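Help! Submission page says 'invalid entity' but I think these are all valid:
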Amino acid sequence: MSKKILRNEAFQSLFASFICIILGVLIGYIVLLFINPTGAGEAIMEVLKNFFHYSKANLQIKNFGNTLVKTAPLLMCALSILFSYKVGLFNIGAAGQYCVGICASIFCAIQFGLGWLPCMIIAAVCGAAYGAVVGLLKSYCNVNEVISGIMLNWIALYTTNMILNNVKETTSPYTFHLNTHGEQAMLPGLGMDKIFAGNTYVTIALPLAVLTAVAIHIILEKTKFGYELKATGFNKNAAKYAGMAEKRNIIVTLMISGAIAALGASFMYLTDYEQWSCTSSAVPAMGFNGIAAAFLGGLNPIGTIFSSYFIQHITNGGAYVDKTMYCSQISDLISAIIIYLCGFVFFIKYTMNQILDKQEEKAALKEKAAAEANTQEGGDK
Amino acid sequence: MENQYAIEMLHITKKFPGIIANDDVTIQLKKGEIHALLGENGAGKSTLMSVLFGLYQAEEGIIKKDGKEVKINNPNDANALGIGMVHQHFKLVECFTVLDNIIMGVEPNKFGFLQKDEARKKVVELSDKYGLHVDPDAYIEDITVGMQQRTEILKMLYRENEILIFDEPTAVLTPQEIDELMQIMKNLAKEGKSILFISHKLNEIKAVADRCSVLRKGKYIGTVDTKDATIEELSAMMVGHNVNLHVQKDESVPGDVVLDIENMTVASKMHKNNAVKNVSLKVHRGEIVCIAGIDGNGQTEFVHGLTGLEPLVSGKVTLCGEDITKAAIRRKILGGMSHIPEDRHKHGLVLDYSLEDNCILMNYFDPEFTDKFGFLRRDNIRKYSEKLIEQYDVRSGQGPITIARSMSGGNQQKAIVAREIDRNPELLIAVQPTRGLDVGAIEYIHKQIVAQRDAGKGVLLVSLELEEVMDVSDRILVMYEGEIVGELDPKTTTEDELGLYMAGAKRDEVKA
Ligand SMILES: Nc1ncnc2c1ncn2[C@@H]1O[C@H](COP(=O)(O)OP(=O)(O)OP(=O)(O)O)[C@@H](O)[C@H]1O
Ligand SMILES: [Mg+2]
């Protein structure tokens, strides 16, 4: 009976994700030990505790809200990667598409004074267009989507810097705050700030992201479109043989992926929680963390909701590490180690099956030996 | 007393979800013998061989080599014991060369540097000695299945294996290649190698095997000396009843033209010349036209060009009066073209999909399977797949939800044939439709093909098997080096004459 559970696909995914998390935390701890043994235990606890760092309930809630605010865009990036992955494409360009989304949302909000919905839609359209570039290159010029994705990430970054330069503060590299220069574009909170102890950054972004996850799950599992996309991902020759338009499917997939990532960006920047620094020299890590979140979630849209939260939880938690004992980069380092280990879900699953196989074989051998012993005894009598 | 058995597999039981693939099976392989394994599709032959090769672990039973019990936990163990296997579906790296595939895992090296010249010399020697002609520098994806198979055999010989497992090696070969392979196997046995040989073709088993063990639905039925058994006896032993090995059919009554091909030319992927040169032919309703020929004479490219998997260089194709030369594949499918592909894994199936999802691969968008909001109608899909499974006797562990990858090769083929015939096409293009099927299944599929013809459909059959060509078709077109070199009537021609055309020794000017 218990063997059955251990062989269950869903259980295995869950179990493997947990093992990854534990391993990640352990290795993170060891690294901290090397740097400064005295504060290591405390530091790793801070990472895991995140908002529980505060003792007051309302501060906890408020900071929990902050983690959620950043979970929404991460979830969107993870979904973007997951969606194309199901079609056999590795959309590393999600980071660039996210960046395009930032550029479009902020620029439309401040320069054109558009409302939040048009801002979001324009961001999604721009992201889709940017994803389409990767798709076109892939299907018509046979350019690997990883290569073109990485290059387009850089183009997106510097274009964003250039365009947003027009809407930035004169004294700092950051773009204007929306609450002073584009209040009409701020996402509605629907009163959720009351639940989160006055945290006004908590908006409809979070429920929208969760809805997207559910929608993607339904599209992939229940619809004709999903059937076609997954068939292309599993075996593109068979898809062609069956008359599916594989070229079109590749482009459409990357457009949807791009739109999701870019929407994720507007979920973040239309809350005014963060502003874009026009001197950024790297695309936001969100797009790359999305890869880890997608894998940690077992490449299941619903699982990804939880894995995204977890990754954001430890990323935020990193900020509470005692900076007098560790240099300020340590928080990123520790979360990075944990996130990195999260990518090992499939390896863990594989090892798990191997161990189970071995055990079953041993059990079978034992049984056989016992049976033989029995028959021999029987014979002796 | 010296042990006479090279390998003994005693009381092997191997279960998969929903099915006992091997149920207390015992086979004993004598030293230097060729031992055939016979059984219906899904009887458990490949599974038993995979147990011997260490790919699966049996739940019960033991394996002895030279009388001593051995544990084979993975293919490396098998290799160390001198056991080699040519799989039913080859296990070659497509983007590597023949030579790289042969030496993979046992690369000769000095201080970690590859010594390819040495390897090449050995491979060339082996290939000369056994007449296994391959080009060591060709890429696997570019060569014919026959050559891929020779590569697999060389792989075993290169590793100096003593016990050789051939899982349906002849299913993909031409009659000439089969004769060669039979000779090679006999030579290998003479040298003292012991061979396990799986085939559905009883005459091959009669021709080379010393003994033959029969499996049915996972159970061991018995072992016979092949020289004492007739083909009829063997087939009855295998399926449990008598099988009619010849196709019964009435005279064909050709009607209108279904398919009209004019001057079709298709490029080759292997060389600069065209693979198909200026081919013209017509298929009428109510007739089975067969393209015969030795593998690699352009049949594959011809079918790919016709079905749209590869572009045409020039020519015109008309299906039921509609010009489909440039039509998309979906258009051709909807226009009534049905295609049983040559390579079931590459084109025919999405191996990671369930059997039921594979059943609707060509018409998933049909209102029967997709509602107007784009959602799949799972109930109907289940019902439809159950119907096909029942009708075509597709056997698997868990029915509609079985993952196609886990099905036996013959049952995968039956699923494809079922899907393509059941769509009720105007034109059925069947490339090697009975490849890898047992005699019972072949009988059934041939009947279905004839039934399509009698229902007024056109059938274009591409086959490498002379018997099938002579038996099933109403008209034979021989393809040689990309051209149609002869049109023959199966009722008046002989296999010898057909052979001459196929070898290029004889040709007529054919006007379609
Ligand atoms: N990996 C697997 N997982 C689940 N079921 C399997 C697996 N491999 C084989 N089976 C099942 O075991 C049965 C025996 O399969 P096997 O491939 O041994 O048949 P076979 O005798 O080689 O048939 P064929 O002549 O069609 O190749 C089949 O019903 C198949 O569905
Ligand atoms: Mg088999």
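Support: the input was valid. A stray whitespace character was the problem, and the output above is from the cleaned input. Residues B 16-17, 19, 21, 39, 41-47, 88, 395-397, 406-411 surround adenosine-5'-triphosphate (ligand 1) (CB under 6 Å).
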